[in-house]
From TrEMBL:
Its EC number is 4.3.2.1. The lineage of its organism: Eukaryota, Fungi, Dikarya, Ascomycota, Taphrinomycotina. InterPro entries: Arg_succ_lyase_C (IPR029419), Argininosuccinate_lyase (IPR009049), Fumarase/histidase_N (IPR024083), Fumarate_lyase_CS (IPR020557), Fumarate_lyase_fam (IPR000362), Fumarate_lyase_N (IPR022761), L-Aspartase-like (IPR008948). PROSITE patterns: FUMARATE_LYASES. GO terms for biological process: L-arginine biosynthetic process via ornithine; urea cycle. This is argininosuccinate lyase. Residues 10-305 form the Fumarate lyase N-terminal domain. It comes from Schizosaccharomyces japonicus (strain yFS275 / FY16936). One of its GO terms (molecular function) is argininosuccinate lyase activity. It comes from the Eukaryota. GO terms for cellular component: cytosol. Belongs to the lyase 1 family. Argininosuccinate lyase subfamily.
Length: 464
């Protein structure tokens, strides 16, 4: 292809509106896929050689030339030209300059930018997903390590942001780690659907030179081949699915960020963020703002917006390739960067977070044990619906006296029900309360240890 000519320019003689040229091009953001584009072209060149379209010398020239182009990208020496509307155009144009347009021009035989871009995106995304998997596992390792180290800290558990029952701090941490393990499993499932080969589908009808798509699959490391050529060039479900995955993991990140924002306030003072993940106020010198957590919370909306926006672009597109599909790249690239950065920021926040067990202990109040007071009678055969009412009466009695339920006397409790005995005072023990929650998934130490083991088993299963 001569420098300055469009890949599609043979039919057109008029000049394109300069604004339309800029509106149409994607090189400024899809150039990040240069590696994927070169890998796909090398594999396709080998497939053309198998069909006798290239001879040995031509194949070698193309492979060597493509590596030269790759090195220029890596070294920051690749010089873009006005005609380079996308990464495919740029690489083909430069390959022609390096080895001559006669040989380079054969590379696109039977191949369309439609199947080329679909292949490049899948190649690029699957490599990025491998990096996401690594940093997600690192985050889970931090969760597990903190949970193991701080397992003896007992804190109030909350529903409706009201103190509810005592739990272990580690149980709280692991309640957020578990959705992340689901995200890890889900990521590997998405990967299998990303890793399907479109190359060899041509523009929409298939390849006219009978290239060996099974060879291409093996050469490029895909798990399978997209069996319908029209679907191969049209499908962007893999983009939407990854952006959905990004939205899910960001929603999980947002929820723990919200909890930590609350717990870091002076009203709670359960935790303090490292200076590396907080900022000060421009006017109030006493403040330490949890900007990292607020940004994590805010960027969850950004990730969802990327997915929703592209789904609206896709929903009305007719069959096969349409230029609307170019709108897949910017939201995908942005979602990928957002989720990678966010996972790493949360990992940094958690690994440097200071927990204040003394302040957490002071927040434990006897009303957290009202359910335990009801369960005391359940163990003596009284139906829970009755004991719930009786325990509520004890709470009301304490409130009317301006005291707490643990300061009521044994006689007070006996006045509410005769089965209350002297040992009722043992109910008001936070450690004993959490240890009673010993069914699988509970907050007893043995259950929390099992949760940590479970997370580490999942990490080991998906690490490689």
């Amino acid at each position: 292809m001569a420098s300055g000519h469009k890949l599609w320019g043979g039919r057109f003689t008029g000049e394109t509106d300069p604004l339309m040229t800029a509106y149409n091009e994607s090189i400024h953001y899809d150039k990040r896929m240069f590696n994927a584009d070169i890998d796909g072209s090398k594999a396709y060149a080998k497939a053309l050689k198998q069909r006798g379209i290239l001879v040995d010398e031509e194949l070698e020239a193309i492979l060597t030339g493509l590596e030269t182009v790759r090195d220029e990208w890596k070294q920051g020496k690749f010089v873009l030209q006005p005609s380079d509307e996308d990464i495919h155009t740029a690489n083909e144009r430069r390959l022609g300059e390096v080895i001559g347009t006669g040989i380079a021009g054969k590379l696109h035989t039977g191949r369309s930018r439609n199947d080329q871009v679909a292949t490049d995106m899948r190649l690029w995304l699957r490599e990025e997903m491998k990096d996401v998997k690594k940093i997600l596992i690192n985050l889970l390792q931090v969760f597990a390590a903190r949970a193991e180290k701080e397992i003896d800290i007992v804190m109030p558990g909350y529903t409706h942001l009201q103190r509810a029952q005592p739990i272990r701090w580690s149980h709280f941490l692991l309640s957020h780690a578990l959705p992340i393990t689901t995200d890890l499993v889900r990521l590997t499932e998405v990967y299998t659907r990303v890793n399907q080969l479109p190359l060899g589908a041509g523009a929409l009808a298939g390849n006219p030179f009978a290239v060996d798509r099974e060879f291409l699959r093996k050469e490029l490391g895909f798990d399978g081949i997209i069996m319908n050529s029209m679907n191969a060039v049209a499908d962007r479900d893999f983009v939407i699915e990854f952006m959905f995955w990004s939205s899910m993991v960001m929603s999980h990140i947002s929820r723990i960020a919200e909890d930590l924002i609350i717990y870091s306030t002076s009203e709670f003072s359960f935790v303090t963020l490292s200076d590396a993940y907080a900022t000060g106020s421009s006017i109030m010198p006493q403040k330490k703002n949890p900007d990292s957590l607020e940004l994590l919370r805010g960027k969850s909306g950004r990730a969802f917006g990327n997915m929703a926006g592209f789904m609206m672009s896709v929903k009305g597109i007719p069959s096969t390739y349409n230029k609307d599909l170019q709108e897949d790249k910017e939201p995908l690239f942005d979602s990928l960067k957002t989720v990678k950065d966010s996972i790493q920021i949360l990992t940094g926040v958690l690994s440097t977070l200071t927990v204040h067990p003394d302040k957490i202990a002071k927040s434990l109040t006897a009303d957290l044990l009202a359910t335990d007071l009801a369960e005391y009678l359940v163990r003596k055969g009284v139906p829970f619906r009755q004991t719930h009412h009786i325990s509520g009466s004890a709470v009301r009695m304490a409130e009317e006296r301006g005291t707490t339920i643990d300061q009521l006397s044994v006689e007070d409790f006996k006045s509410l029900h005769p089965l209350y005995e002297d040992d009722v005072a043992a109910v008001f023990d936070y450690e004993a309360s959490v240890e009673k929650r010993c069914a699988i998934g509970g907050t007893a130490k043995s259950c929390v240890v099992d949760q940590i083991k479970n997370i580490r088993n999942i990490i080991a299963r998906y690490k490689d």
